[in-house]
Amino acid sequence: MIPVFRPLAPCCLALSLLMAQGAVRGEPPAPLPSEARAARWCEELGRQLYSVSADACLGLDFRPGAMRSVEGRSLMRVDRLPHQARQTASNRPGSRAPRVMMIGGIHGDELTSVSIVFKWLERLAADDGPDIHWRVIPLANPDGLLASPAQRMNARGVDLNRNFDTPDWQTKAMDYWVGRTRRDPRRFPGDAAVSEPETRWLQDEIQDFVPDVIVSIHAPYGVLDFDGPAEEPKRFGRLRLNRLGVYPGSLGNYGGVFKGVPVITIELPHATRMPSAREQEAIWHDMLKWIGQNFVPGNLS
Ligand SMILES: [Zn+2]
Question: Cα(16) to centroid of ligand 1, in Å?
């Protein structure tokens, strides 16, 4: 197991270098706004997470989305297009590459759910697996991750994974919170469905990207969960299917039940200690195999 907390903040100077480039020449600093926002975001993540290098993060070409978090932080994403060699084939009717959206850090205190997305982004760069168009959102709740201490909820104390605009939110979300969780502040669904900018942005991203599959990463239950159509995965690495239930306002409910998009929830076994490199690879391998078998035309491997 590898710890993911970074106790000190010795990392990257990317942002200050960007800002200083202009100053050295006697000019005002002039990075593009999106580059400056990416640099600031990567620097904050690099300080908080052992496993994330701010400089490597900066090289991953993240772009800010159209909305910001409650505290004004950027909500970042990156697309990885299908292999160029297969792009032509994927443009043929009926054979387009599947679109997979991968989301980490909806709960800000599940640090491994963010770190492992960065590990898999590195893996993606070298992977020769199924031809997939990825949209990757490593950190859906930046205010939660960067709070001191890191917290599950967003800056307004809302559990984003209970705030999606599911058809049963109005009738069930508050009753569930009061009756089943006994007003657990860690599971507060908000004052209204999709009341939070982070949830609104995720819903907009789903509408914009139109994924075939959503992979949502959490911790620490050490299982797989699945909602929606398609053949359910039985096992990724050591994680076995164990349906945890459907909750008012959850992403699995919104995507899998309401929108009809299969949602895999990967629950890593620890929130602050990464799985071994071997286990990270096993989960990744089995996930690609399941996607390939279920969503890549003609691929039965
Ligand atoms: Zn979670």
Answer: 33
Q: Strand 213-218 relative to strand 99-103: parallel, antiparallel, unpaired? A: parallel
Ligand 1 centroid to 103 CA: how many Å?
Answer: 11
- Measuring CA to CA, how many Å separate 199 from each of 22, 163, 189, 192? 37, 7, 11, 11
- Backbone dihedral region for residue 221 (phi beyond 0: left; psi -120 to 50: alpha; all else: beta): alpha
Ligand 1 mean position, distance from CA 121 (Å)? 20
In the reported structure, the alpha carbon of residue 268 is separated from the centroid of ligand 1 by a whole-number distance in angstroms of: 9
Question: Where in the chain is CATH 3.40.630.10?
Answer: 60-295
Q: How confident is the model at residue 33 (pLDDT cuts 50, 70, 90)?
A: confident
Instruction: Kindly state the DSSP code that residue 81 receives in the 8-state scheme.
Output: P
Out of 88-102, 168-182, 272-286, which region has the weakest mean confidence (pLDDT)? 88-102
Going from the Cα of 284 to the center of ligand 1, the distance in angstroms, rounded, reads 19
Q: What is the pLDDT of residue 95?
A: 56
CA–centroid distance, residue 91 to ligand 1 (Å): 36
Question: What is the CATH code for 60-295?
Answer: 3.40.630.10
Residues 65-109 have pLDDT tens digits of 999 999 999 999 999 988 753 455 444 444 579 999 999 999 999
**Is pLDDT above 80 for 14?**
no
Question: What's the 151 CA to ligand 1 centre distance in angstroms?
Answer: 11
